[in-house]
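For the sake of clarity, the format in which proteins appear in this thesis is described at this point. The record quoted next illustrates the convention:

___
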Amino acid sequence: MSDFFQLRENGGTVRGEVLGGVTTFITMAYIIVVNPAILSFAGIPAGPGTVATILTAAVGCALMGLIANRPIAVAPYMGENAFIAFGLAALGIGWEQRLGAVFVSGALFLIFTLVGLRGWLANAVPAGLKHSFAAGIGLFLAFIGLYETGIVTSFVTGMPPQALPAGAGGLFTAPPVPVKIGNLRDPQVLLAVLGFVLMTVLMIRRVRGALLIGIIATALIGGALGYGSAPKAITALPFTGGYDLSTIAFKLDITGVLKASFLPVLLTLFLMSFLDTLGTLTGLGAVADLLDEKGNFPKVERPMLVDALTCMFSGLVGTSTSGAYIESATGIKEGARTGLAALVTAALFALSLFFIPLIEPLQQLRFAYGPALIAVGVLMVGSVRRIDFGDLTEWVPAFVTIVMMLFTYNIANGLTAGLLLHPLLKLAAGRAREMNGGMIVLALLCAAYYCFGLPH
């Protein structure tokens, strides 16, 4: 085992790998609760969706350990799941086509990785835009969490129809204010506020598994107050009954997404995933002292290959786009240095398949899992401090990226607007030499999104 994972060469020990793998699992186990809850809005049933989420994480972590030999966990992405569930809602497409888009984007990742184009495009994206992507997605997730928990709600909530403004033809017009503060006298809203504060305190104190602990604690308090229900069982066999994966596995519609109108969907999933993976690998490489003298992740093609294969697997079994998780940093800090830690994390995810009934009630409690979305958003928004505010050719595209994601309620609009505006401003400023071929290719793809796609 020591020779296979090259423990000595990478400065690792068996104890450190096991402890790191366990720590990573505890830190990111909230995805078992949150991801199926979000995807349920796309029509994917929670039971099979939970099995698909866990199975994808187990397979992705195992592949990362065996193929890339890196202490990096893989699971369905936060942000991408919101895009699948909410961002595509306006297109009126079923979950079968959404899963098809996940699979096709994974196949594109695989092709781009094998021919070396994925790394070329990733390195072409300006650093400021990369950070704005993370910040914008963070705010998007936080807004979803605020809305789902009722802390923020629609302006028209609680208003009778006759109080709504009507325009020509009796059609309702846009309200003067799109959103407003929720009912802070609602006990479930107050529970959500309490949950967020608890998660924040735990993160400040660097408690491992802060989000998962916060979700469970808030759920227990809510249960004691009469909200929610107790688990029907502690263990159950996966792939049977309400956890039968056959209801969503291999039900994806691939041919339905291979048309021009789906270009913005595929473009968005492609950009989100390869940028998420690049940023995560760079950040984790710095934590684990894996980067070379130029700041590049050595043999980056291997974890990118795992990312592509896991993404295709995600679409096949019935969940959203997957990739490397930044929470792996917690395991790295505990001593994880090789793929053995990823295998430990994979084993724990596989074991959790038999304890889904214990987890399932949490998926119905928005006041319990919603604060986790806000907390993850807080962590992601921190990337904004790395943007160069003194250079308007960098800050303006970054700002547009963030606000377009949030205020159009669509991640695709932010990504494409920023990538399109950045080279245009460089040209206008007479700084064309700061551009590269990859930026131009990405800008053309984004222009195609607005000209020929379905921006919404």
In short: Strands lie at 74-76, 152-154, 179-181, 322-324. The chain has one domain: 10-155+176-376+388-452.
